[in-house]
Amino acid sequence: MMISIxxxxxxxxxxxxxxxxDLRIVRDLAKEVAxxxxxxIQAERIxxxxxxxxxxxxxxxxxxxxxxxxxxxxxxxxxxxxxxxxHAYEEKLRRIIMHHERIPCTINIIIARGxx
Length: 116
Prior knowledge:
The chain is mainly alpha-helical.
């Protein structure tokens, strides 16, 4: 089972060097991922996968491994952050959101940790 866990930790670099625009972009995307993680479907998927892993599945589970490369490339080109670290955070967050929206399967479990 694949679970998307994104943990945002404190950066050791000088925070004043990062633009407010980059911080705003990453915070807005992180908020959206946290909202997705709080959806009831996420708890349901976790429950169903745990039952499947206990060998007492309630229904067949679906794993979609094909990734639409064009859409993934589009997620990369949409990135607006200038700082390399925040650009990487932005890309990861955009990919999580895209998978949630465009690849509906029971394997897409999103757990948000470290957001405050």
